[in-house]
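Posted in: Structural Biology > Protein-Ligand Complexes

Title: Requesting predicted complex, nicotinamide-adenine-dinucleotide in pocket

I'd be grateful if someone could produce the 3D structure tokens for the following input. Sequence and ligand are given below.
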Amino acid sequence: MGSRREFIEKLTVSAVSLPILCGPTSLFAACEQPYNSPILRVAIMGLGGYGTRVAKAMLDCKRAKLVGVISGTPSKITKWQSEYNIPEKNCYNYENFDRLKDNPDIDAVYIITPNGLHCEQAIRVAKAGKHVICEKPMAINAEEGERMVKACREANVKLLVGYRMHFEPKTVEVIRMRKAGEFGQPKFFQGQSGFVIGNPNQWRLNKKLSGGGAMMDIGIYSINGARYMLGEEPIWVTAQETKTDPVKFKEGIDETIQFQMGFPSGAVASCLSTYAMRHLDRFFMTGDEGWMEMKPSSGYGPIKGRTHKGELEQPHITHQTLQMDGMSRIIFEGLEPIAPIDGEEGLKDLKIIDAIFLAAKTGKKVKL
Ligand code: NAD
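-- Reply #1 --
Done. Output follows.
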């Protein structure tokens, strides 16, 4: 039997050499290892619903800490300062946040504002020399996404997208199984992503701020899920749009879109994205040797799922806590998640969304 030291050494080597989240066991073993990287010091931009959720989740992070805020509402800043012990010097508004460049106590800015603002905000953050973490969708079209990738590359900062499912243990396990060939050749993916959206006056139904309707907000989970579950990039899309409420869902705001994607191996995906139906949060994938089903598949959890081998038993851990600890390791240790979360990954989804909108409008098959 090897010594405890040999055991720890082996564990440390595997923690560094394996992908960051190649399964819950290694995830937690890795997280328990002593490490010398600094804590990722994060400022959140946009103190709304999801920003609040991320801030709360970060209280349990071991490798990341909320240290700053950027908001247009002074009363929110004061409240967050007292709740999260944020010093005055780390508080900014949308006019003055370029001054982040003079603040050595913030490493990254997490942009959690309406989609239509992400691009310009990300470029300003990159120019201030800070790593950019941006919520999904990364931007409202591929042209914007490309500008963001370029700006971050030129500024030599990382660009990461808030794809929290790439850190979720059951999802990670299914991706691991697929990579290990346990489903055989993946053949078919089905994604259903939707909910009934409320207030007609919210930014999510305003084209300039949202870039689109359900597809930008929730349909993107089926697009991204199809890609990480099948392990391929689509080469064509077709799409059909249905609109039952043209007053609420104006021009450019999609209510419901069914879409199909074809992959180089011959695998296909059939997906539904909607703002008008309840209980739609399900992924299914079948290969020639096995299958998986997850329902819910991309909500805040607990995620539930099973495969041809049985129930997925991985524990539920707050997604955003795992995500922010994982992002810290990606930024400081250069580790790779099991499915990418970088700007190029965000851009791939945006190119597919552009193609889906074009296919829905023209009724034609669009090649990617
Ligand atoms: P929200 O409306 O709750 O919050 C948006 C925040 O942006 C508010 O604090 C608002 O004051 C601020 N803001 C700044 N400029 C604004 C402007 N010009 N118009 C409107 N608001 C402005 O929205 P949210 O649900 O927090 O969504 C924010 C981002 O987070 C979106 O990109 C959304 O897609 C993403 N999101 C991701 C997840 C996820 O699970 N990854 C979940 C929810 C939202």
